[in-house]
Amino acid sequence: MAYEPLKGQKALVTGASSGIGAGVARALGTAGAAVVVNYGTNAQAAGQVMDEIKGTGAQAMAVGADVSKEDEVRAMFQEVCSAWGTIDILVNNAGLQRDAPFTEMTLEQWNGVLSVNLSGMFLCAREAAREMIRRGIRPEISRAAGKIICISSVHEVIPWAGHVNYAASKGGVKLLMQSLAQELAPHRIRVNSIAPGAIQTPINRAAWETPEALAKLLKLIPYGRIGVPEDIGRAAVWLASDDSDYVHGQTLFVDGGMTLYPEFARGG
Ligand code: BGC
User: Fold this and answer.
1) Which mutation among 93, 98, 117, 153 tests ligand 1's pocket best, with the greatest number of atoms within 8 A of CB?
2) Smallest CA separation from ligand 1 atom 3, residue
3) Percentage of residues in the chain with pLDDT exceeding 70?
4) What is the pTM of this model?
5) What is the pLDDT of residue 251?
6) pLDDT single digits (tens) 28-37
């Protein structure tokens, strides 16, 4: 029999039309959850992910909402809760990069990244927490009243020149997650982060699409391979399931060792 640790649970994954979000949405579906595939702009791609999940026998729906817009986030949660009754798992994944040398970075690039990567997580986590607190624990479904997982980055600890807005947003995610974990623990809502390293997705295409770029990238990854969205999907299933019921307020690095300062293997 299939291992379905999330059977009977409703999950919402933001930014799930591509990349890590799509990988997480598929993995949650395979683990037995009903999955909301949220997308910002690409309805067609989200529809495909939804169809793939339905094809495996799980329930799925695609819902458009810009996570940085309060009214759109509210409307999305209302739509999901009226369709499916409640929400058990939120994966705060939507994120983007708008890279520039610092002295050329525009306020638009700064605000664009902070508003999706950080404010978007705030808005979605707030709606999810309100619903999880309202509903409370159903022991037949899960030991927790809800699970919130933030998809952070190795750049919540690794500074990143040329990407100051992105690194600042992920540094913010670290303390957003930890403070939220502290505050929501009495409600039995578990809050954790996954910090992916280099995962092969459209966001970092330039870092892997030529053999030269990939060779340079692999020097930063002791384990010697680029990650794939399934690597993050499997971690998300575990963090969303009761298998990790005593894990709370933690960041799980899924990075092939990128945070091990690999330069020091050859020097220092
Ligand atoms: C970034 C990618 C980058 C990776 C490792 C991620 O958070 O979005 O562009 O390849 O970190 O540096």
Assistant:
1) 153
2) 198
3) 100
4) 0.98
5) 99
6) 999 999 999 9
> What distance in angstroms lies between residue 209's CA and the mean position of ligand 1's atoms?
14
Ligand 1 lining (C-beta closer than 6 Å): 97, 153-155, 197-198, 203-204, 207
Beta-bridge partner residues of 10: 34
Fold of the domain built from segment(s) 10-266: Rossmann fold (3.40.50)
- CA Rg value for the chain: 18
Lookup result for tokens 């409640």: 86
Q: How far is the CA of 226 from the centre of ligand 1 (A)?
A: 11
Average of pLDDT values for 37-52? Answer: 98
Residue with tokens 């010697």: 224
- Angle separating helix axes 229-240 and 19-30, nearest 10 degrees: 50
- Residue with CA nearest ligand 1 atom 7: 153
Q: Which residues of 185-202 are buried (b: 16+ CB within 10 A; e: fewer)?
A: eeebbbbbbbbbbbbbbe
d(CA 54, CA 77): 21
What tokens were used for 118?
């950080």
132 contacts: CB under 8 Å, gap ≥ 6: 87, 88, 145, 146, 187, 189
Residue 198 Cα, ligand 1 centroid: separation in angstroms?
A: 5
> Is 166 among the catalytic positions?
yes
Give the total residue count for the chain: 268
